[in-house]
């Protein structure tokens, strides 16, 4: 894991989002610095996706979101992806370059660049494979290549392991950490429900339940006490081996 350094890429101050009488986020403060691997955790409906939408400029909010990131890559969840879609891996990546599904001219012009991005995440062997023939882990790598093709300063992932088996999940995190090691200024922000994954892979964690419950080094944030405050229980299969 890369060590966070430098002035923030993203600084969030007093971020508040209301939907009528419902407050989705309440005066959230945080900073994302170059090299940071941030895990965002919280119960369902706690505002995690709303926070990401604000960082991506897709939601209205009160407060401030200051960004000096020139490029942001985003990897959505794949569990609801329609596998009958008639496309190939390389076309998905090229769509991230041209902002639309590529025609023959775009395929010729951008194929080399797209294949290089697929190679970065170990997916070049199935560049021409139909999407319906990919496993969940392979498909997630394709979307990761699409997000990385522009060389972003910040990579945002929404539950990247959803719909991926355990072997694919391990490969995905190994791929992420390898890419960040080769690009140490890259910041990664990831929504996850798995605090074991967060504690193992993310140097920094944000525990969110509409407002910030805890934010800081993962080993300090993801304690049994703070997890009980957020989730109400810590199951035996998620035992962190720490005491509050």
Describe this structure in words.
This protein has 244 residues and is α/β, with parallel strands linked by helices. It is built from 8 helices and 9 strands. The strands form 2 sheets. It has a 6-stranded mixed sheet, with helices on both faces. Strands 2-1-4 form a 3-stranded antiparallel sheet, with helices on one face. It is 34% helix and 24% strand. The protein has a single domain (10-238), classed as 3-Layer(aba) Sandwich (Rossmann fold). The longest helix is centred in the middle third of the chain and has 17 residues, at 104-120.
Summary keywords:
244 residues, Rossmann fold, alpha/beta, three-stranded antiparallel β-sheet, 9 strands, six-stranded mixed β-sheet, globular, 24% strand, 8 helices
Summarize the structure.
The chain is α/β, with parallel strands linked by helices and 244 residues long. It has helices at 48-55, 89-98, 104-120, 136-148, 166-182, 195-201, 218-221, 224-231, and strands at 10-19, 22-32, 37-41, 62-67, 72-75, 154-158, 187-191, 204-209, 211-217.
List the SSEs and their pairings.
Elements: E1 10-19, E2 22-32, E3 37-41, H1 48-55, E4 62-67, E5 72-75, H2 89-98, H3 104-120, H4 136-148, E6 154-158, H5 166-182, E7 187-191, H6 195-201, E8 204-209, E9 211-217, H7 218-221, H8 224-231
Parallel strand pairs: 3-7, 3-8, 5-6, 6-7
Antiparallel strand pairs: 1-2, 1-4, 8-9
Helix pairs in contact: 2-3, 2-4, 3-4, 4-5
């Amino acid at each position: 894991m890369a060590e966070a350094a430098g002035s923030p890429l993203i600084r969030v101050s007093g971020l508040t989002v209301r939907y009528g009488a419902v407050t989705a986020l309440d005066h959230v403060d945080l900073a994302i610095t170059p090299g940071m691997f941030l895990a965002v955790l919280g119960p369902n409906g706690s505002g995690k996706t709303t926070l990401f939408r604000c960082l991506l400029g897709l939601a209205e909010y009160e407060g401030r979101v200051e960004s000096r990131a020139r490029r942001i890559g985003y990897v959505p969840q794949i569990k609801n992806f329609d596998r009958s879609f008639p496309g190939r891996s390389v076309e998905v990546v090229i769509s991230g370059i041209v902002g639309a599904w590529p025609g023959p001219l775009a395929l010729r012009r951008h194929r080399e660049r797209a294949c290089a991005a697929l190679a970065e995440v170990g997916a070049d062997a199935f560049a021409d494979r139909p999407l319906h023939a990919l496993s969940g882990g392979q498909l997630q790598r394709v979307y990761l290549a699409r997000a990385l093709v522009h060389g972003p300063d910040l990579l945002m992932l929404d539950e990247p392991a959803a719909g991926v088996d355990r072997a694919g999940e391990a490969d995905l995190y190994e791929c992420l950490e390898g890419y960040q090691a080769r690009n140490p200024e890259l910041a990664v922000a990831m929504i996850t429900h798995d605090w074991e994954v967060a504690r193992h892979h993310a140097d920094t964690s944000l525990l969110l339940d509409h407002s910030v419950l805890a934010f800081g080094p993962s080993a300090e944030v993801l304690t049994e006490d703070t997890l009980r405050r957020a989730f109400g229980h810590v199951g035996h299969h998620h035992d962190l081996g720490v005491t509050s």
